[in-house]
């Protein structure tokens, strides 16, 4: 690999988590990532129950395929999660900072209904008040809720092409934000970066014009405050991203790199993500 490329791009799959405290798991492909994530979510729910309290989880829409699998697992076992609290990481906003309508095809709230809550036996599903999305008109409510619940048992998520987790976008190049400052950012409304809007458009046929410019996101403060971190990479372009997160500098320019400051982090990647990135013109 040419010397002008960052050294972390040379990290082989065998050394992908070497010299880090991150617990790395490599699975075959996207369906296996989804199965692993569904199983892990249920495992955290069961562990919390054994400790005598209903779980509180921060969960993403992206990855997404785990939810129908989890619903099937819960239905088959007749396992109730009525008292479990699921806090969605983020949601798209309109230009006047209101949630996009739940009927909007890109609404994360709508997706959770279609692909998880509506698939569950109603007697097993979380109570309506336990299905949480950050409110753009009351962003402080998330931390208040977390405090009332005694903290977050685990945060689940994916990693964006610019290293973001949830919609915690890295600062623009002219902004100087320290790691400590970035780690303390709370739930807030914000602009999405061009990189995020571009890569998110890939899932809707490449039509970037329909990707909203604004979003509300759980903050780094709430994410890093969770007792466990479980993150997943299932896209081929995440081969480079995962290496930057694990072996690049810990910096606000790559938000997910801050996961390395946490004491309990797992990263699960598809086999093709673990492979060295193929950086060449084809």
TrEMBL record:
<dbReference type="GO" id="GO:0004342">
    <property type="term" value="F:glucosamine-6-phosphate deaminase activity"/>
</dbReference>
<keyword id="KW-0378">Hydrolase</keyword>
<protein>
    <submittedName>
        <fullName>Glucosamine-6-phosphate deaminase 1</fullName>
        <ecNumber>3.5.99.6</ecNumber>
    </submittedName>
</protein>
<dbReference type="InterPro" id="IPR037171">
    <property type="entry name" value="NagB/RpiA_transferase-like"/>
</dbReference>
<dbReference type="InterPro" id="IPR052960">
    <property type="entry name" value="GlcN6P_deaminase-like"/>
</dbReference>
């Amino acid at each position: 690999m040419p010397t002008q490329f960052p050294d972390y791009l040379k990290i082989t799959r065998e050394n992908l988590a070497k010299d880090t405290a991150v617990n790395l798991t490599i699975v075959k492909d996207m369906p296996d990532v989804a199965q692993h994530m569904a199983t892990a979510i249920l495992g955290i729910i069961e562990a919390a129950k054994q400790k005598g309290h209903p779980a509180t989880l921060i969960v993403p829409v992206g990855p997404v395929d785990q939810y129908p699998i989890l619903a099937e697992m819960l239905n088959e076992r007749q396992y109730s999660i009525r008292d479990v609290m699921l806090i969605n990481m983020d949601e798209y906003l309109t230009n006047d900072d209101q949630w996009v309508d739940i009927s909007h095809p890109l609404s994360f709230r709508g997706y959770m209904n279609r692909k998880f809550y509506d698939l569950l036996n109603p007697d097993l599903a979380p109570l309506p008040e336990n299905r949480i999305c950050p409110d753009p008109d009351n962003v402080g409510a998330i931390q208040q809720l977390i405090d009332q619940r005694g903290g977050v048992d685990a945060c689940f998520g994916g990693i964006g092409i610019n290293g973001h987790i949830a919609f915690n976008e890295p600062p623009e190049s002219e902004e100087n934000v320290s790691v400590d400052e970035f780690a303390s950012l709370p739930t807030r409304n914000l602009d999405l970066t061009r990189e995020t809007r571009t890569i998110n458009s890939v899932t809707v046929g490449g039509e970037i014009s329909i990707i909203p410019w604004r979003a509300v996101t759980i903050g780094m403060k709430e994410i890093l405050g969770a007792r466990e971190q479980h993150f997943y990479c299932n896209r081929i372009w995440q081969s480079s991203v995962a290496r930057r997160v694990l072996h690049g500098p810990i910096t606000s320019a790559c938000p997910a790199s801050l996961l390395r400051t946490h004491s309990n982090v797992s990263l699960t990647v598809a086999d093709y993500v673990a492979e060295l990135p193929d950086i060449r013109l084809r």
